[in-house]
Design brief:
- There is one protein chain.
- The protein is an alpha/beta fold.
- It has a single domain, classed as Rossmann fold (3-Layer(aba) Sandwich).
- It contains nine helices and seven strands.
- It has helices at about 25-30, 65-70, 75-80, 90-100, 140-150, 155-165, 170-180, 190-200, 210-220, and strands spanning about 20, 35-45, 45-60, 85-90, 120, 185, 210.
- It has a five-stranded parallel sheet with strand order 5-4-1-6-7, with helices on both faces. A two-stranded antiparallel ribbon has the order 2-3.
- α6 (about 155-165) packs across α7 (about 170-180).
- The protein is globular, with a radius of gyration of 20 Å.
- The chain starts with 17 loop residues before the first strand and ends with a helix.
């Protein structure tokens, strides 16, 4: 199956959608506008008051190569809405997104993926996690999470971690999760991750790890 380049909001739901797993970086970049505070002067009686007013501001433009990846995300989202792509995530990705700056906006109207239902993938292997409390800082939560990923639960997980390179344990978990669920594409804009995976030959992945622009090019 290939993506139809003419996007229509009226297109029918298809039964053989191409499955994609979007990493936290992509979901973060999908937020088109970010919260901001502006000053506004209000006249009340014979006095002026300077108030802080909550608003939004367009996301700052990034260097050209990454901006190209960001700019094609609305098209990816429309293909998901049309049923030509199916979005997949896992529970660990939810934890990761929750700890991002503006992570709560990933599922809001400010995201190009707003309103899209994602399929939750099963865990790729049995494991336990420490349940975080409101008293944990983000740094403590990161350490708890990394303690899980640093354990040698599964040989395939260890192999993918090695292929992904340093500090990419969470990505390796997501890739394994996608691979075990026979997902077609793992979509990221992490240049270091993609270069590491493409420059090694020991581990062959069944899921394709691609940039958003490559996803659209490959499936046209």
């Amino acid at each position: 199956m290939r993506l139809n380049g003419s996007i229509s909001s009226e297109c029918n739901k298809m039964t053989s959608a191409i499955t994609i797993f979007l990493d936290a970086m992509i979901l973060r970049y999908a937020i088109a506008d970010e919260p901001a505070t502006t000053k506004q002067t209000v006249r009340w009686g014979d006095r002026n008051f300077n108030l802080n007013v909550a608003s939004t501001t367009p996301r700052p433009r990034r260097e050209d190569w990454i901006q190209d990846e960001i700019d094609c995300l609305p098209q990816v989202a429309e293909f998901v809405r049309c049923g030509q792509l199916e979005l997949c995530i896992n529970n660990e990705l939810r934890w990761e997104v929750a700890n991002l700056k503006f992570g709560g906006l990933v599922y809001s109207e400010l995201s190009v993926f707003h309103g899209i239902q994602a399929r939750t993938l099963p865990d790729p292997f049995p494991y336990s996690r420490i349940v975080a409390s409101a008293y944990h800082t983000n740094e403590e939560l990161d350490k708890l999470r990394e303690a899980i990923f640093a354990t040698d639960y599964d040989q395939r997980f260890c192999d993918i971690k090695q292929a992904a390179g340093g500090n990419k344990n969470a990505d390796a978990f997501h890739i394994l999760s996608a691979e075990c669920a026979s997902v077609d594409y793992f979509v990221t804009a992490d240049k270091k991750l993609i270069n590491s995976l493409r420059n090694q030959r020991k581990v062959q992945l069944s899921v394709k790890v691609v940039y958003p622009t490559e996803l659209l090019r490959e499936e046209r």
